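Researcher: Structure for this, please.
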Amino acid sequence: WLALVGCGGSRAANDAGVALDASADAERPRDSGPPPIDAARGLGLRIVTFNSGTTLGLSHERAPDDGYGDAEAALSDEYYGNGLAWTRAIEDVRRFFETLEPDVVVFQEIFHPEECEAVPVEARAGFVCDGWVSGDPSVVQRVLGPDFQIACHLDKPDKCAAVRRAVGGFRGCESALCLNGLEGARVPDCGGGSRIGRGVIELVGGGELTLVSVHGSSGLDLPDQACRVAQFRQVFEDLGLGDGPAANGTSNVILGDFNTDPVRLARLDESARYLASRAEIGAADGFRFLSEVAEGAPPTYLNAIIDHVIVDDATGRCFAAGITPGTEAPTEMVYFDHRPLVCDLDPR
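Model: Predicted structure, token format:
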């Protein structure tokens, strides 16, 4: 656990020695039964958080033979920031979402192809940059299609939120893709841009939903913990824009890769303790975890539970795609180190 929290940019935790053997990225056993979510959930909202990054250290040479091996993983690490950029994986994720039919999605570590200009020609084959020209759809647009409006974090185009147009649109976003479209503020000494993004979804049926997209800093060193505490304070106390916390709506959904586990890391990590103090486990009201965090909950990152969905006035159920029995992973490739966390909010 000492080096577990590290799913961000440089993959520091893996460098620090997390065991990443073949079993860590293997497909978990699945039964042939139905998904745990009732198919009649259509009147509610299906929301997803997905850290779509990859990393060195996985068994990339293992079957299936998909063209993505250790050499390609090294290119991904050097030129693509380990964000979702491999064309085969992008297409698999597109099919996954086409079947899943989500209403709201937030991504972390999804490559922004405007950065292709900095990628040398010899590092483009098989990646999204091969044949890319300015103005082509972003990776988020490719995996979700034209039925979604997309808004991204302040100066962090690898972290984006999307809403199905039939459900609503982001207030203040007038185009299909709004870079810097989520409200946020930089935390000093914790990297550039904003790791917390707020978007107010104006629902087609009336009303609003305040969506808070989270990608906490990685690592368990004291400065890393302090950065996450500051970021979580933006969520629950003060975003830094003069209008209170990021979660300042009458109905809030907070979701993403928090890079901490409020149960298993509580003794080691100040940010885990802070998060547990602001969002209760098993509570009936107030901010509470909708996704499972207790012992025995399905992990979404190796054997950890660091991807979360927190709500204040909603009920529903969640599953980890490809981990929860009866559900499918986004790809058969050895590529992702996270699994999508999918939650169905009950209709009101």
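Researcher: Any notable elements?
Model: The chain is about 15% helix and 20% strand. Residues 258 and 312 are 17 Å apart (CA to CA).
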